[in-house]
Amino acid sequence: MFGPKSYLHGGGFAGINNKGPIVYFDIRVSSPYRDLILIKESQLETEEQLLSGKLILSINENFVLKKLSLKLVGRFKLDFLQLDHGSGVTNIVKDRKVVFETNWDNLLVSSHGEVVRSNKTSLNHPMRSFSSPVVNRLIKKKSTTSHVLELPSDGFNGTPFTDLDPEHSYLFHLHKGNYELPFDVRLPQDIPDTIEGLQSGSILYSFEAIIDRPQKIHFHSHGFSTYKYLRIFRTLAMDHLALQQDVTVSNTYVDKLQYKISIPSKAIAIGGSTVINIELFPFRKGYKLEKITGSLKQWFVIRDTNDNLYDDQIVINKQSMTEFKDIENIQQRDNLLLGNTTINSIFQLPHDLKKITQDVECANDLIHVKHKISIHVMLRHIHDNKTLEIKANLPVLLYVSPAERVQGRLVLLDSTNGNIHFRTNEYVDLFDPSATNSHSSITPNTHSLSPSPSPAAMLLPPPNYMDRLKDSLVNGNRSVTRSAPVSPRLTHQDQHPPRHQDKEIDFFGLPQPAATPVQLQNETQFRALGTASPTARQPAEPALPLPPAISELSEDERCQVPSYEQTMQEYPH
What SS3 class is residue 219? Predict the structure, then answer.
C-alpha cells in the first residue's frame, strides 16, 4: 500500500509494498533536460511541440490487467490574501482550474495521446491531436466476454497491440520481466508555461500513470499508480526579433542636461546579465553624480474563472552605484562631471524561478507577466545644491535559456494522490551546469561559450551581424585592423579608434575595458565596464585605425599589405 505520507522526488515509483508484483514503475520524458520540455518560440513560424517518452514497468510475477493508462494535466491555482484598503477587511481569494489535459487511454494498444482540454477548449468539445488514432476508443466498448492477450514472457519494448477488434473487450496477461511502453502527443501552440514562482498564482503540470486490474481476478488487490512532475517553458528561437532589438530612452532637460540610456537587447535570459549604457551630456558646469540605481520590476495580472482581475508589481532586485572611479570626465574626488560622460554597467538577473518568473502571455488572459528595468540617476548642482533626477524605464523580455544557470524549486509529489509540494528554500538546477555560462564571476566577455556545439548552445542568440568583419593579419606581431561599423548607440566610441583597437569585442559589439567588473550584489555598487567621452555626433563614416608606417615594415611585410583594389573588393561600400 502507499504510505500516508510517502513522497516522490519529482516523480517516479515509490511506496509500494515490496511483496507486490511491481518492482519499478516510472515515467520518462524524451528531452535533453530532466523532466522539462523547452519550446522554441519564433515570430516567423510556429510549430507544434512533440512530447514523447516511455513508461517503464518492471514486474517480478505474472499478473493480468485491463489497461495501462497515462494522462498529463496542467492545473491553474489562485491562492492569496487580498486586503481592502478602504475597509481594512482581508479576503481569501482561491480558484482552481484545469487548463490542459492529455489522455493516453491504454499504452498497450496505442502510444498516441488525445488532447481533451487546452486553454481554448473544454471537455465538452475534445480536441484530438493530429497523431491520435481511432484505436484509442476500442477499449471503451465492452462485451460480455473478455479476450485475454498474452505478452512476451521476457518483457516488451514498444506498443504490443495496435490493431484490435473494437467490438470486444480485452485483458492483458503480463509475464515477469521489463516493459517499455512509448507515448507521444503534439502539444498545442497555446499551452501555458509552467509558473511556479508567483506568490499569488501558479500553473503546474504532472503525469499520472495507472495500472487498472480487473476486480474479478484480483479481488483483494488494487491498482497501481505513479506520478511525475513536468516543467514546460518557452525559449526564444535564434530568429526572434527581440534578441536583436535594442531599447533606448533619451530626453533633454532644457539648459541643464541631456541623457541617453540603452541596453543592447530587449530579450534577456533569466540568470544572465545585460549591459546598461548611460550617456550624460551636461549643458552647464557644476553637476555632481551622486548615485545610479537599477531596479528590475515584475508586473503580473491574473484572471480567475469569474473574470475578476488581480494585478500587482514587485521589485525583484535592486543594484546601485555610488563610486565612479576611472571613468573619463568624472572627477574622482567628488564625482563632478567635467564634460560628456558614458558609463557602461552590468545588470545581473536572478537565476531561481521562485524569485523571478519569465515573461508569460497565456491565452484567454489567464496570467500575464511582464518586466522592466528602471534606471534612476541622481545628480546635484554644487552651486545651488538643487538635485536633478533622471528616471527611465526600459521594457525587457525575460525568457528561460539552457545557456544560463536556472534553478527551479525542489518538488515533492504525494504518492497517494499526486499532490505537488515545494520544499522550502531548496532548489534544483534545470539544465546541465557544464552546458551553461558560469556566473561565479561576472565578466564583460558575454560571448565565452563552449567551443563544441551542445543542445543548449544551439538555442543561443546568433552573433551580431556587424561582427562578421575580421581583422586582416599582417604578421604575428602587427596587424592592420578594420573596425566593423557599430550601432548608433555607441557612435561616440568611433571617435577614438586607437583606444579600443587592441581590445576584444563582446557579443553585443561593445569594446571591452582593461578592468574587469565584479558581480553586482543587491543594494551594492554597479561596476563600470568602460568609459568614453562622447563628442558631437557627425554623419561622417567611422574612422579606421591607421596602419604602421610603410618605412617601418620589412620588404616581406610590405608584400603582405593588401592593395587598394583588393581592399575595395573585400569591403565594398
Answer: coil
Q: Which of these, 364, 363, 380, 342, lies nearest to 256 by C-alpha position?
A: 380
Asked whether the beta carbons of 474 and 482 are under 8 A apart, the reply is: no
- 78 DSSP β-pair partners: 95, 201
End-to-end CA distance of the chain: 77
Q: How far apart are the C-alpha atoms of 100 and 122, rounded to whole Å?
A: 9
Return d(Cα 314, Cα 100) in angstroms, integer.
28
Point out which residues pair with 299 in neighbouring strands: 313, 370
Report the distance separating Cα 85 and Cα 105, nearest Å: 50
Domains annotated for the chain, with CATH where assigned, are: 7-236 (2.60.40.640), 241-405+511-542 (2.60.40.640)
The answer to which of 35-44, 157-166, 380-389 has the lowest mean pLDDT is 157-166
In the β-sheet with 407-414, what is the strand arrangement from edge to edge? Answer: 7-9, 407-414, 420-429
pLDDT digits (tens, 9 = 90+) for 501-554: 333 333 333 334 433 333 334 444 444 454 433 333 444 444 445 555 555 556
The whole-number average pLDDT for the span 285-314 is 92
